[in-house]
Amino acid sequence: MYAISVNDGSLQWTEVDAPTPGEGQVRIRVEAAGVNRADLVQRAGRYPPPPGASPILGLEVSGVIDLAVEGGRFAVGDRVCALLTGGGYATHVVVEEELCLPVPDGLDMVQAAGIVEVWATVWRNLVELGRMSAADRVLIHAGASGVGTAALQLAGLLGARTFVTVGSQDKLDRCRALGAEAGVNRHDGPWVEAVQAWAGAVDLILDPVGAGYLEQAQEVLDVDGRWVLIGLMGGRRAEVDLGRLLIKRQQLLGSTLRALSVARKAPVLRALETTVWPAFADGRIRPVVYADVPMPEAERAHELVSSNETIGKVVLTTP
Amino acid sequence: MYAISVNDGSLQWTEVDAPTPGEGQVRIRVEAAGVNRADLVQRAGRYPPPPGASPILGLEVSGVIDLAVEGGRFAVGDRVCALLTGGGYATHVVVEEELCLPVPDGLDMVQAAGIVEVWATVWRNLVELGRMSAADRVLIHAGASGVGTAALQLAGLLGARTFVTVGSQDKLDRCRALGAEAGVNRHDGPWVEAVQAWAGAVDLILDPVGAGYLEQAQEVLDVDGRWVLIGLMGGRRAEVDLGRLLIKRQQLLGSTLRALSVARKAPVLRALETTVWPAFADGRIRPVVYADVPMPEAERAHELVSSNETIGKVVLTTP
User: Fold this and answer.
1) B314 by DSSP, 3-state: which?
2) B254 and A240 in contact by Cβ < 8 A?
3) Domains of chain A
4) Chain B: nearest CA to A79, how far in angstroms?
5) Does the beta-carbon distance from B243 to A230 stay under 8 Å?
6) What's the pLDDT at A62?
7) B151: distance to nearest CA of chain A, Å?
8) Are B87 and B54 in contact (CB under 8 A)?
9) Fewer Cβ close by (within 10 Å): the C or N end of chain A?
10) CB contact under 8 A, B229 and A210
11) What's the DSSP call for residue B295?
12) A46 lies within 8 A of chain B by CB
């Protein structure tokens, strides 16, 4: 098979041995793979794959089963999308059958490649960890990112109100079209006052930034508010106001999806299939794909993501 | 009635008007009142009573119902203990009937006066917020305090293992006798290595200290570990390592009991009655009373608590 390998820091399309499925695993002939910001961090050496994971980049794919589990749910030829701990930038990948889902009705393979990682991420963080309810006011940073566009749509689907921060007016317009109730371009100035003017305070924040945003997060979080940290784009050292944490009963929750066990990821995927997949099928929500790029040109795809110009997902397609 | 009032910073036994119960409230003729560290903070002006609460100090009492709710659970003459938002340092107090519990079988009124606040605190923070399970390794700071002695006994009752930090060898011995598996005298040096030697890492920390302990907390917290902050004895400004928070999926949870609504406190008390009160009755756990002091001498009781020499609770008794 072919896969992207990282050689001296550059991405190269290389022939490598195809993986063999272990017990409970299927093999997928990959049609498309989603690009995630985590891939760029891993490539830079700052997000090593968890033990047992493929060293190849790529956390999600769509494709066709080419080796099935005997007596399993999926048969050879079935169209699936899958959540990986690695290995997606390749023509073939193995993954636990439990971490595969059928391609939602109405989506093509490019769209399906970019939904599992971001929707599992937002389900895990907003619903499971953040205990989002229909009464909640939710602040979503990087609202136009892959995770952001999924987060604001999931919040809308479950009845919560959303405010986004983004990096351009164009992104803000797009988020509004996807259901964000309000938002700000962070280049226009501080967002704290805008959030307070919108809803007084918020109940839940989804934050890929970290340091630099924590102080403001504590300012806008209401009593019993939850701050879910899913990235460190702003750095890792921050000061926390423990007085506010205590008196307001705030919660600071660190989260990564990739290192969770299969046993903890599988229920997330089942919840997506039950609650989110039908909403793709009937158009209540939609995948947001910014560009699809041939997989051998993965370098260009990473440049796109690095540019911070993208809205939604960049997807790689196999030749 | 008589109550303790704060005049120019000193505590004085003063005649004041007796309170009248509102809807759903009973009045208790107080026999004894527990002293909590929060009382000292409130007296110093740094922990104002929540809206609607009595300005009189005192978060828990035992006594006898002298005005009942019509058709309610308790009748005039019933012996109860109660969780208050204030008003305990007095001969009479009014409180929602839902926040009263019968005095556990086998306990006298002095013992009963010092159990509701601390046991509600540890149930709320270890079980509800900290999601303590029987497999957990639990670190309890100030293990010999009222809250600490309840926390280590609750953990033991539910099957979890405990490590305490305390301020003297005497306190450590007492905590061991109450079920702490291990512990350190914090004056003997840093506790991080001792905790790691004990169990590698911990799943849950109950911390009344705050600043000064957060960095070490993050060092000893395992993946999915929870740090529940219930006090600020060490100050309110601290640096947090967001990298560790994220990668280890740590949770920093601020908590206060007093400001919770009656609707959220009542289930805590029902859980205590079901799970903890029978354990008092059959001796699996025991109240820890360090001293009882006549209520008009409340000043002396506060000096005792300030001394940090006490093990367990100081209780005030009405004349």
Assistant:
1) strand
2) no
3) 2-115+258-317 (3.90.180.10), 119-254 (3.40.50.720)
4) 33
5) no
6) 98
7) 19
8) yes
9) C
10) no
11) G
12) no
Closest of B94, B149, B84 to residue B119, by C-alpha? B149
- List the single residue in A214, A230, A246 with the smallest CB-CB distance to B229: A246
Question: How far A41 CA sits from the closest chain B CA (Å)?
Answer: 13
Are A166 and A175 a contacting pair, CB within 8 Å? Answer: yes
Helix B169-177 to helix B146-157 angle (10° resolution) is: 30
CA separation, residue A219 to residues A66, A222, B109, B229 (Å): 52, 8, 44, 18
B253–A contact, CB cutoff 8 A: yes
**How many CA atoms does the CB half-sphere of A319 hold within 13 Å?**
10
> Is B251 in the A-facing interface, judged by CB distances under 8 Å?
yes
| Amino acid B46: pLDDT | 87
Look at residue A143 and give its three-state secondary structure: coil
Contact B251 A253 (CB under 8 A): yes
Between CA A291 and CA A111 the distance in angstroms is 10
| Strands B161-166 and B137-141, sheet pairing | parallel
Q: What is the pLDDT of residue B82?
A: 98
CA distance A205 to A126: 9
Q: Residue A249 — pLDDT band, cuts 50, 70, 90?
A: very high
DSSP 8-state secondary structure symbol assigned to residue A123: I
Q: So what's the ipTM on this one?
A: 0.94
Phi, psi torsion values for A58, nearest 5 degrees: 115, 115
> Global pTM?
0.94
Mutant choice from B227, B240, B244, B264 vs A, greatest count of A C-beta within 10 A? B240
CB-CB contact of A89 with A38 (8 Å): no
Portion 231-250 of A in contact with B at CB < 8 A: 231-232, 235-250
Cα separation of B307 and A267, whole Å? 51
Whether chain B has a CB inside 8 Å of the CB on A218: the answer is no
**Minimum distance, in Å, between the CA of residue B169 and any CA atom of chain A:** 30
Quickly list H helices, A63-142: 109-113, 116-122
- Two tokens, residue B69: 């709710």
Which tokens go with A255? 């989260």
Determine the residue type at B42: Q
CA distance B317 to B42: 20
Q: Work out the average pLDDT over A199-209.
A: 97
Pairs of residues, one from chain A and one from chain B, whose beta carbons lie less than 8 Å apart? 103
Contacts of B239 in chain A (CB under 8 A): 237-240
**Contact call for residues B101 and B272 (beta carbons, < 8 A):** yes
Residue at token pair 């978060």: B59
pLDDT band at B47 (very low <50, low <70, confident <90, very high): confident
CA B89, CA B28: separation in Å to the nearest integer?
A: 12
Instruction: List the single best residue of A128, A242, A251 to mutate versus B (max B Cβ within 10 A).
Output: A242
**What average pLDDT does the segment A99-121 reach?**
97
Mean pLDDT of A122-139: 97
DSSP string of B184-214, one letter each residue: EEGGGS-SHHHHHHHHSSEEEEEES--TTTH
Task: State residue B30 phi and psi, 5-degree precision.
Answer: -75, 130
Chain A residues with CB under 8 Å of B244 CB are 236, 254
The residues that bridge with B11 in the sheet, in sequence order, are B6
| Chain B residues lying within 8 Å of A253, measured CB to CB | 249, 251-252
